[in-house]
Amino acid sequence: LPEFSGEENTSTTYSNYFRLPAGTFYISVSSWDAGNYSLTYEHKDESQGAYESEINDRHSSATPIILNKPITGNICNFYDKDWYIVEVPSKSEICLRIERSRYARTNYNVSAYKKEKDSTGPFLFGISRYFANGNSPVQHSEFKWLSAGTYYILVEGDFGDCTDDYTLAVQKKVPSKNAYLKKLSTSTGKWSNKFSRTCYSYTVTLP
Predict the structure, then answer these.
(1) Measured between alpha carbons, how far is 122 from 3 in angstroms, rounded to an integer?
(2) For residues 196 and 72, what is the distance between their CA atoms, to the nearest angstrom?
(3) What's the CA gap between 74 and 54, in Å, rounded?
(4) Band (86; pLDDT cuts 50, 70, 90)
(5) How many angstroms from the chain centroid is the CA of residue 184?
(6) Which residue, 88, 108, 123, is CA-closest to 158?
(7) For the chain, what is the largest distance between any 2 Cα atoms, rounded to a whole number of angstroms?
(8) E strands of the chain, at which residues?
């Protein structure tokens, strides 16, 4: 869990915000010097499905997410890792999307893995060393065709910790309507007189 130190000549010091599962926790306070202090604990409840569920540092405790539905998470310390698990019901073009504060201090690495039995499979694709740098609050990976199955997504901080949340989405590409149009074969005919009629039959199937 996170640790933080008070700064000299600073009357108030805050830790980063971080997420915890339901349960009982202990808070330890220590100092080299004697003196009085005031400790305040703040918390707020978050709706399930909209935020990561800590502790999700391992793929075995990954937070479930749904295609195209953003989820909010946070890398609260150097050792924190956020694992997510997502179902791809059919072969689809998929990309990873992450959004964070323009001025957040942490690089992010986002990786996708195919679930194989009870472990992760080989690295598939992802976003490497994403840093907003005041200019790019949103980053996408390339789109990649994935077969139907279960996939893990891992979000890691490249260095340090970050008080700012990130928003992650596993996005399925929606084909344009023109993608369903196919060129039909051309049929030719000839009218023998003004009373003749020619009929043709076409079969249209959904993709």
Answers:
(1) 33
(2) 67
(3) 10
(4) very high
(5) 40
(6) 108
(7) 111
(8) 63-65, 71-73, 81-88, 92-100, 108-116, 119-130, 138-140, 144-146, 149-157, 166-172
The structure tokens 């502790």 sit at 55
As beta bridge partners, residue 93 has 145
Burial state string for 155-166 with b = 16 or more CB within 10 A and e = fewer than 16: bbbeeebbbbbb
Determine the Cα–Cα distance for residues 80 and 3; give it in Å rounded to an integer: 12
* Global pTM value: 0.72
Q: In the predicted model, what is the mean pLDDT of residues 164-189? A: 71
Structure tokens of 197?
A: 């009629």
Q: What is the reported pLDDT for 192? A: 63
The answer to whether the CB of 16 falls within 8 A of the CB of 75 is: no
Q: How many CA atoms lie within 13 A of 108 on its CB side?
A: 37
The rounded distance, in Å, linking the Cα atoms of 61 and 168 is 17
Cα 192 to Cα 16: distance, rounded to the nearest angstrom: 85
Helices (H) then strands (E): counts for the chain: 0, 10
In the chain the first and final C-alpha atoms are separated, in Å, by 49
Q: By C-alpha distance, which of 96, 97, 91 is closest to 145?
A: 91
Cα radius of gyration (the chain): 26
